[in-house]
Amino acid sequence: MQPEVFQRGAIGRLRIHVLPTQRFKTFSLSLFAGVPLDESRVTQVALTPFVLRRGTQRYPETIAFRERLDDLYGAGFGFDLYKRGDYQVVQFRLDIINDRFVSSDQSLLKEAIGYLGEALSAPALEDGHFRSKYVEAEKTTIAKRIESIINDKIRYAAERCVAEMCKDEPYRLLALGRKEELPGLSAQALYDGYREWLDRASLDLYVSGDTSLEEVRQWAAEAFKLSDGSPQGYARAELRQARREPQTIVERLDVGQGKLNLGLRTSQTYGDDDYPSLLVYNGVLGAFPHSKLFINVREKASLAYYASSRLDGHKGLLTIQSGIEIENYEKALTIIREQLEAVRQGRFDAEELGRTKAMLSNQLREIQDSAFERIGFDYNTVLSGKERTGEDMIAAVEAVTPDQVVEAAQGVGLDTIYFLRDQKEGD
Hints:
- It comes from Cohnella nanjingensis.
- By secondary structure, this protein is of the alpha+beta class.
- Helix content is 42%, strand content 22%.
- It has two domains: 7-223, Cytochrome Bc1 Complex, Chain A, domain 1 (2-Layer Sandwich); 247-421, Cytochrome Bc1 Complex, Chain A, domain 1.
- The strands form three sheets. The chain has a six-stranded mixed sheet with strand order 1-2-8-3-5-4, with helices on both faces. Strands 9-13-10-12-11 form a five-stranded mixed sheet, sandwiched between helices.
- Helix 1 crosses helix 4.
- The radius of gyration is 23 Å and the shape is globular.
């Protein structure tokens, strides 16, 4: 049996990636649009997909636009907004049942590609710009989402730690933009920004299902109305060294539990050959329940309600998150730093390494069971320029040696200590 692999092509500025497969009863579509994080445009870009989801030229009323999904046998449509490296990425998603399982006299995949193409490139307009009522309503939506971050203290602390660590880099910017800029965004200004965004974005259309590259190319050429040009690539994020002496940021809010977050710089990104070693390092350190942070900070010392680490492979950042009693700040910080030093000195055993590899391999295998997960994994290839299949990554992870984990640890440096605590004075 031949392995399932993505077939690739392009139509003008739109790259096309097709995974022909009969494993699923649905077609899964993702459209990625990425632009460099830019302080002057980040809020416009963030607001744009919220407005695009409201209607198109053929279906200008939101109710009719969404009812069209019901006509397509309950197709699902949505979007995500996030950062990857130094880019702000919008991902539109659409899933629709395969024609073979319903009594349809039309190609549902063709209709789905048409729906997606129209949502992106033929939005509902009035007087040559976005509909004002949609813009105003979605400004309220996105403002509430930004406000909700401060109510989620775990996420707030994570965002603030990164913002302080990267305060002179675009990566400090929130993917949702800035709340204070929303009132000044008119329907005309947003539409002008949308046209600029569409003309300069790196665009990638992914389709997974029982189809072919030739079929998708034909229908995409009809559906997407884009300016002329060639596909735009992604530049590698700038890797910076950690500060010689970590900076400490203490922020006071009305909280009952402290949030101690650490920001670290790594010397590797997803595009590097030795990235799997960094992935395993993060697993040994804090990605799993058997990892050193969880076992030593939470379980043995009982100093944290949670303790874990997270790796951003495209930016080369590693962050540690923990929730602690405020008076345990010094103790918790000391033990966290001890875990960093332990891995740096190779003080981990074969069982820790083996369990980490097993967990990572299982995660990578589970990706194969979801069309959207496979699409997301392959999109790493576009972002990094490094092509890896799931099987390639599993093999690379399983081949990582203890010495390679130590080498990865040597390239990780502590940059920022961020502590969110209460407002009591004199502590």
